[in-house]
Design goal:
This protein is mainly α and 459 residues long. It contains 22 helices and no strands.
């Protein structure tokens, strides 16, 4: 545990800024790279399918590895996994930026995704372990705020660097995450529970997640990979279920998947990025068809993103008034409305900008609320596992949002696909609204005395 002196130096806001910058830079593997896919593809002679795999390979490895990083953190603390993860992230980005061929580029992107998968779960685990009560809520909310700002600036930064030095400079941007390693090293717990990591369970989680995500990512253009993922996913999922039942303290602790708060927060965690990333993909594509360039797209969406970041920075106050469940419900409702308004992009680009205010603000309110609920609902010894699974579900939702746009865009039009995506947060509202009462859904009054659910579990 940090000493009193360290706690005074590392206030929740200071920790949030440092780790939020690290998280945001790792996320630029998608946001800064997406705007230079054109020149990148031309430079390496890639087909449309090859161009898509530049983003898909990163997203698949990132999502599949998050739960593994979380469970490793339970065992050894988050300091060593941070060092390994950010190093892999930087090495992968450098290899991808320097790659003379598609296959080396793909290898670099896979390594980068593997390292990037460590950052979200290790960040939430570190802050949840270091702070309690209001301080934890402030740290999680403001970390999300900083991350949102950097993620929103990613297309602008990637486009600007691409214009100045070419696509390789944009792909290299995540290497800057190395500069934040000293911050993570100081904040991260150096010890865990010492529990042995279930390697078989870890492999089943990663393989199941990868199979499901391959199906989701390729729905817009199904082929051999889609079929392979669909065939492999069911038996892998069955083997994982049997593993959890047979080894309750294994890689996926049975206590985590039986916790109602974790399950319901997971459903909401999948719905939120589904609609948010559907908007991020659909709106720029519609505007690009009207002749808008990446810089113009980024500027249109930037006000909503910055407002979302400001809301996230002050989300602790909202949670203190509404509780975590109430704040998450508000965020999901705003997201659903924002998606429907953004679907009017075919009528006016300004409707898309207005709708993105709802999408971004809803995301900013719901994400820290849901993370805080999961962290409060489980014992500290399995918190990394719970947050790792939560993050895995979150990134699955991100992939689903992109897939919905790709799969339904030709059938319903991009605005129509975005309107369909609004169903996800609407369903999640029902899931959260019908949850039974739990201290983990509360806000300030519960945290002031410590999470009651943790005391119940410890007994």
């Amino acid at each position: 545990m940090p000493t009193r002196t360290e706690e005074s130096v590392w206030s929740p806001t200071r920790a949030a800024v440092g780790l939020g910058l690290l998280w945001g830079l790792s996320a630029m593997g998608t946001s800064a790279t997406s705007v230079v896919l054109g020149p990148l593809s031309a430079g390496l002679g890639l087909s449309t399918a090859g161009s898509a795999w530049v983003l898909t390979s990163f997203a698949l490895m990132l999502a599949a590895s998050t739960a593994v990083w979380g469970r490793v953190a339970d065992s050894v603390g988050t300091r060593t996994p941070y060092l390994v993860g950010v190093t892999l992230l930087a090495l992968g980005a450098a290899l991808a930026a320097l790659a003379p061929s598609f296959w080396l580029l793909l290898l670099g992107r896979l390594l980068q995704g593997l390292g990037a998968g460590a950052v979200p779960v290790l960040t939430t685990t570190t802050l949840s372990a270091r702070y309690d009560g209001d301080d934890r809520t402030v740290a999680l909310g403001r970390t999300n705020s900083v991350t949102l700002v950097l993620t929103s600036l990613g297309p602008l930064l990637g486009g600007a660097v691409g214009v100045l030095v070419g696509w390789r400079g944009s792909v290299l941007l995540p290497v800057l995450a190395l500069a934040l390693l000293p911050v993570a090293y100081r904040l991260a717990p150096s010890r865990g529970t010492g529990v042995r990591v279930d390697a078989v369970g870890a492999g089943l989680v990663a393989a199941t997640a990868a199979s499901l995500l391959v199906v989701v990512q390729t729905l817009g253009d199904p082929g051999v990979l889609t079929l392979a993922g669909a065939v492999l996913a069911p038996p892998l999922l069955l083997a994982l279920v049997l593993r959890v039942r047979g080894l309750p303290e294994g890689f996926v602790p049975l206590a985590v998947v039986r916790e109602d708060v974790v399950v319901r927060a997971g459903v909401a965690a999948a719905a939120m990025p589904t609609v948010y990333f559907a908007g991020l993909v659909a709106v720029p594509l519609v505007l690009a068809g009207r002749g808008w360039d990446p810089m113009q797209n980024g500027l249109l969406l930037l006000p909503g993103a910055l407002l979302g970041a400001a809301v996230s920075f002050n989300s602790a106050r909202v949670i203190g008034r509404l509780g975590r469940r109430g704040t998450a419900l508000l965020g999901l409702a705003l997201s659903a409305v924002g998606a429907l308004v953004s679907a009017g992009v075919g009528v006016s680009p300004w409707l898309a900008g207005a709708g993105f205010v709802g999408l971004s603000t809803g995301y900013a309110l719901a994400q820290p609320s849901l993370v805080g609920s999961v962290a409060a609902a489980v014992e500290p010894r399995v918190r990394g596992a719970a947050l790792g699974l939560f993050t895995l579900v979150f990134f699955t939702g991100s992939a689903l949002g992109s897939a919905l746009v790709g799969g339904l865009g030709d059938l319903l039009g991009l605005p129509g696909a975005l309107a369909v995506a609004a169903v996800a947060p609407t369903v999640a509202v029902g899931v959260l609204a019908t949850a039974r009462d739990s201290a983990a859904w509360g806000g300030r009054p519960v945290d002031a005395d410590g999470p009651r659910d943790e005391r119940r579990l410890q007994r």
